[in-house]
Amino acid sequence: MGKTTFGKGCHLHLIDGSAFIFRAYHALPPLTRKSDGLPIGAVSGFCNMLQRYVEDSTGDDAPTHVAVIFDKGSHTFRNDMYDQYKANREAMPEDLRPQIPLTRQATLAFNIACEEMEGYEADDIIATLSCQAREAGGRVTIISSDKDLMQLVGDGVEMLDAMKNKRIDREGVFEKFGVYPDRVVDVQALAGDSVDNVPGAPGIGIKTAALLINEYGSLEDLLERADEIKQPKRRQTLIDHRDQIELSKKLVQLDCDTPLTFTLDDLEVKEPDPDKLMPFLAEMEFRTLTKRIADKLGVEAPVVADAPAPAAESPEQAADAPDFAKANYECIRDAKALQGWIERIREVGHVAVDTETTGLNEMTADLVGISLCVDAGHACYIPLTHKDGNADDLFGSDTLLEGQMPLQEALDLLKPVLEDESVLKIGQNMKYDAKIFARNGVQVAPVDDTMLMSYALHGGLHNHGMDALSERYLGHTPIPIKPLLGSGKSAITFDRVPIDDAVPYAAEDADITLRLWQMFKPRLHAAQVTTVYETMERPMIPVLARMEMQGIKVDRDTLSRMSNAFSQKMAALEDEIHTLAGESFNVGSPKQLGEILFDKMNMPGGKKGKTGAYATGVDVLEDLATEHELPARVLDWRQVSKLKSTYTDALQTHINDETGRVHTSYSIAGASTGRLASTDPNLQNIPVRTEEGRRIREAFVAEKGNVLVSLDYSQIELRILAHVADIPELKQAFADGVDIHALTASEMFDVPLEDMTPDIRRQAKAINFGVIYGISGFGLARNLRIPRAEAQGFIDRYFERFPGIRTYMDDTVAFAKEHGHVQTLFGRVIHTPEINAKGPHAGFAKRAAINAPIQGTAADVIRRAMVRMPAALADSPARMLLQVHDELLFEVPEDGADALIDTARGVMENAADPAVQLSVSLSVDAGRGANWAEAH
DNA sequence: CTAGAGCGCTCG
DNA sequence: GTACGAGCGCTCTAGC
């Protein structure tokens, strides 16, 4: 959208943000956010007022430009003139303070410009903009009832009292002050203002002031001719307090020359953006407003957390729940019994749900039974497809056991509750169960997930599996599954477990899940991670479930042909290696290889590790390869072997028979930093760095008529580093689109950019990444294969040029030591329990603590983008398929690729808004093609 | 025969 | 003794 230049015919609206906030605050009872008790009344009122404003400002008189203007900081140039200015002002109420930044976020969420200037009051900014707009020939409406702004009225500038819906023009000002706008400051200077602590002339109010000004024409003339005033007392007052009156005029006179960092053109009215607005409203848990605005915009309202936080629950109360030994676990075998449970679920409004299936892979596992729990200690299991587990028949009997409800009947009864917006479904690793249900025609929503709650609360502390959580937080060891299923070749699937054994095991899982939920729910707020959970954990469940079920098409023939080629190559290399070694051995055994290299052939540098085996990693072999043929051939063999075993062979086994596609599974709570991890198979480590490896990606293809589209963040971690460590040079480089590694090299080695050599740049690149990883001389030396002292020299030089980096690292480690955790820009907490350890552990923990906020913030950003993507692409045929940390891969009909890139890039580049104002922009590169190699 | 540790290599 | 964060295939060994 091109910007129009502000001028004749334009209409500027300026909203007095502070007035909105205070009015909202005082007009509403002290509302709090249900899930965590955050005071939210003023924000709620503010949003309602903004919404009403937006709705009202349509039609002929609609603004072309608009901004909400806020005060910033308490010290302004007026305090420099008069230290008592606004000194009487009451301190801001405690429950209002945390709402102030939220109103800024709200404004941005409404897609309205939001402006403030350090050292200036909002009124000065409004004055300056009014003057500028008037000079450009435009009209101005100031939305405020602040009388201090009335001096600006006239010549196309009006005020609008939003509350009374009353327009104030020149005549309106005259009514209020008895003078026209150009003399308002004179009147105010005389009358003073007790609220703002403007002294004025004692004993003179607005009426007297207006009288005097009208008689003498202006304040200056009045003071000049004060001796002519007839009333002796009034005369003396004006003469005695002349200085004070002149000071007062300066205090009330608004500054039309505020140095603005933006222009009128930046304030152009923008369409509301549901992708910004809806998530914010949902985050604030404004149910009614969210729905009303969603209807207005014609979008689907996001799920707003519905469950009120249970009254602050102490561990003692949790202990009041029935002992697990006394728990009552029922087996549900008919519709009547199930209906009773459903009624109870509706009464309470939430239920813990768990599914039992025939396997761990959600895309192939079949539903065997469902457990439910509404009250701690009272759960049920509904067996559905249990079969005879007797080993008489080698393949078991396929006849269903008696005493089970038909699967479809149970699903039909449960579906309305599981899909009911007003019933919260609680699970442990709910994505698994949601996918199982989805494959059975039930779209479970809304959901809570105890695994993700634990992750938001305790990321980095321990894993978040149910067994561990139960042990740790409930002091109860769950019934192990092993004895029921067996292990190894003789293992059976859950449908072969006798129902009597299945009931206590399955029902207990739901019971545990409910108890964990009751314990975690209030703790989210106490730990201030409710927003993290609500915006970056919970909403990932449906998004990832959809992606995983979508899968990506992988061409088996391509992989198979590659496998054959690799086999031949490996065999040839193996022969060569055996000949070079003079004997036959297993090339794939590092132990045997080490013995050949260092014992038999006596090559230099043999170092044994802790297990007594020689190290034969790539570093070692690369060094030896410069002198010897054998290690070089082993490296070749290893590359091919890796490609074949991990990729071309293993990947084929993951192609789903029904869909012909590969369905990975993302673990949301796996990585401590907030990153996702892809498993079964891992599609986040498909080769790309070598030409040969990259060819694996040719097997990842789009369906006929479609293309794969890849969008990836450019240098996101370095950008975040530049922001958090506040490095002006790096920020500037990103703003200018300069090659960041070249710039670093230029700064460090004093080489002009135009004289940059690839080698110097390469070293700088290594240092840039090293910094993100918590740099050490040793590590850099090893990476660059240079002496340690030289590497240390580089690092010293780097810190010298970018001192902010050193400060960031020191501050981060100090924060971790004090709090036991670090945080991302979005509030994700990453615990660092080892940070105060002694010995070598300390180094690890320090570097991890330095890296975590950077990697974690990047992870948060892409999570936010992913959460917003479905709504943004609601009208698009595009499907999101994969996430690879800083990349999203989509599949779309060819003719939809351009639109997709446009939309998805917008979502990704703005994913930090409105929660965090980054001082660097995010940039997204896009590619497309018939396969992943072409698209990347 | 199986589970788990260790190594090595793939990705961002 | 070291770069940060992950997952997985292979080999080897301890122990059933």
From TrEMBL:
Residues 7-270 form the 5'-3' exonuclease domain. Residues 329-525 form the 3'-5' exonuclease domain. It comes from the Bacteria. Residues 693-896 form the DNA-directed DNA polymerase family A palm domain. CDD domains: DNA_pol_A_pol_I_C (cd08637), DNA_polA_I_Ecoli_like_exo (cd06139), H3TH_53EXO (cd09898), PIN_53EXO (cd09859). It holds the Pfam family 5_3_exonuc_N. InterPro entries: 3'-5'_exonuclease_dom, 5-3_exonucl_a-hlix_arch_N, 5-3_exonuclease, 5-3_exonuclease_C_sf, DNA-dir_DNA_pol_A_CS, DNA-dir_DNA_pol_A_palm_dom, DNA/RNA_pol_sf, DNA_polI_H3TH. Its EC number is 2.7.7.7. Single-chain monomer with multiple functions. This is DNA polymerase I. The gene is polA.
